[in-house]
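The protein record filed here.
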Amino acid sequence: MSLSAAAEEDSAPEIHLPADIDWQMLDKSKFFFLGAALFSGVSATLYPVVVLKTRQQVSQTQLSSIKTAFAILRHEGIRGLYRGFGTSLMGTIPARALYMTALEVTKSSVGTATVRLGFPEPTASAIANAAAGLSAAMAAQLVWTPIDVVSQRLMVQGSIGNPNTPCKYRGGIDAFRKILNTDGLRGLYRGFGMSILTYAPSNAVWWASYSVAQRLVWGGLGCYLCKRDDECKETSNNSGGGGSFRPDSKTVVAVQGVSAAMAGGVSALITMPLDTIKTRLQVLDGEENGRRPPTVGQTFKNLVKEGGWAACYRGLGPRWASMSMSATTMITTYEFLKRLSAKNQENLPS
């Protein structure tokens, strides 16, 4: 589906945007190979923020992000901000591949179906993006949940209760083996239900919000430019309707980034309590000395008992920053990746 849109009012300008590159137009091998390289770089850049968020969520005391970062650097050095990164990176590649495949296939098929059913293009785009985000998140969690459990266990080593606590795991493989031996496959999928409950609606909301935010930003930008541009005013007067403008590639990327950050911030705020409960379920040991793993209800009660309702929002700052930055870099990288992976570069729609 095309991102091209016209404002609803006659006096507003028409916005000509580059058309979408759908699943059929992509060179799949190039898409997955370049995607693995590009998103690995993005993950490496944002990983320290994820570590900060996770440390704050499992901590029984409230510490600011800055104090947590300095504590990690003081006791563990820069390596502390990259604990579990190797494991996370190895899981990111197949998880991203599943995510991108489900996203593009669903968006293309649902988008076509909704247009055929007679939905307006903006509504069809929002529905397709929401359905694509939902299916992509569910597919990716099949791979990502075990990796998430292992990498988060490595992230918080030495931080629960006492920063000088000796490490239980020597690395990702050792953690994987010990969790599997202790808890079985269930241990690697601890928090899977909460992960689906957190990420599936969050992705659906994010992609739908992103679609809507883009149109709002473009509409506002178009009206602003048309008011300030004499040539656009003249075009509007001569035609008896709205003028038009065709943004350059830098403007397109900027609007995509702003729209992604807006959608990411809203999703972070809405799903924060669910993410905190999920992280606690995945990280804190349950079956030790005959004790059963904590339930969702018990975890929630313990959180509220520790710090009230505010405890459910521990790590909100890093998560907000992480999701906003990740969303911005992800969507701009993703759109760039799709253009690089198009089969016929010379025939790209503009």
The two ends are 13 Å apart (CA to CA). Residues 263 and 346 are 32 Å apart (CA to CA). The longest helix spans residues 192-228. The first strand starts at residue 5 and ends at 6.
